[in-house]
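Batch manifest line 417
LIGAND: protoporphyrin IX containing FE
JOB: complex structure
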Amino acid sequence: MSNRTMDEAARVFADPKAYADDVRLHEALTHLRANNPVAWVDNRPYRPFWAITKHADIMAIERANELFISEPRPLLATAAADDLAKEQLAAGTGLRTLIHMDDPHHRKIRAIGSDWFRPKAMRDLKVRVDELAKRYVDKMRDIGPECDFVTDIAVHFPLYVIMSLLGLPEDDYGRMHKLTQEMFGGDDDEYKRDGGSLEDQLAVLLDFFAYFSKLTASRREHPTDDLASAIANGLIDGEPLSDVDTVSYYVIVASAGHDTTKDAISGGLLALIENPAELERLQRDPGLMGTAVEEMVRWTTPVKEFMRTATEDTTVRGVDIAKGESVYLAYVSGNRDEEVFTDPFRFDVSRDPNKHVAFGYGIHFCLGAALARMEMNSLFTELLSRLESIELAGTPELQATTFVGGLKHLPIRYSLK
Ligand code: HEM
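JOB STATUS: finished
ARTIFACT:
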């Protein structure tokens, strides 16, 4: 069976503004899970795709990583942006990150950075991350009693952590933050570069390229003890990584490594403010921090989607998918699936089990998941142990996006010990 009639609800996937409107988004996703869980979406300027909204189907597709591969369409972009990306790659200045790749190449490239994110590395980093968490909560106290939690705190803490892991100088943090915002924020008027045209997006990519090409050259000449050196000097089958692979590795670590975590931290704090009984529970019992962090990640789902493309004719939930057609994995929907989560629209700091798909699943499972969890754990442990009161001081504002995003502004009033 293959129903290619467009369900109006499925238009949310091809509309960046839908992600800035939680109510509209979840109404549409709830409808699709119940009535059209493998929905055809044909909405210009995007090429058509199948939207997958059930948790079990998202996991099954990610598990079948030979039947559903990341090339050539790992994420939703307009047809023109997809074409430009291909041209850039052919010209040697495009991006081919881990999320664009399939095994066996993917596995080899992933292995170059993976030691830096293993539990042992995380344990070694914990003291430093705790120190930074304290520094940012001190900053919050100093600038209080009001702040914009996103722009004053949530952006800076994970940016600082990932930049120091990479070994980049502090003077460059601001630049990396702006480039990341422009890359993920191409659909948002406040974030996009200039007019947000394809040329403007290309200029962002070229800036990343120029910055990281210099970094590669310098780390190859003078290796240091940081992740940037590990990437620059990594070998695949005895050969150094190509320029595209090196720059792409930096770009994914630098960008995925902080924007996503900022979204989970700020959305997590908003959920606590909107659910004061949960905030109080967590303050009374800090032993719940592990499950609370997991619930914040499920609740916010900062990465909205990834895509896969079928290598053979196949079916998902009885719907025919032809070889070469793409499926859109709607993580936001999977994380509210009534068949998996009891009372999915309740924010529950003790939720257990919590098998969310916010970090994906399978061979592409988020490389930095343990780091993100540790950062959130440190920040919320420090913050909640010192927090005496907190309330909204204005209206929270969500980013328009189809890919990565969360709160742009979270005005709060608070008192801290
Ligand atoms: C709350 C924060 C984060 C969320 C929600 C998140 C989410 C994701 C998701 C959904 C994927 C794709 C998984 C898949 O296709 O199955 C991914 C991949 C990835 N993430 Fe994260 N991430 C977060 C933090 C981080 C951090 C801190 C880093 C640090 C470097 C990071 C680095 C990566 C990398 C390198 C990949 C590609 C892995 C691969 O393709 O093999 N992420 N992340």
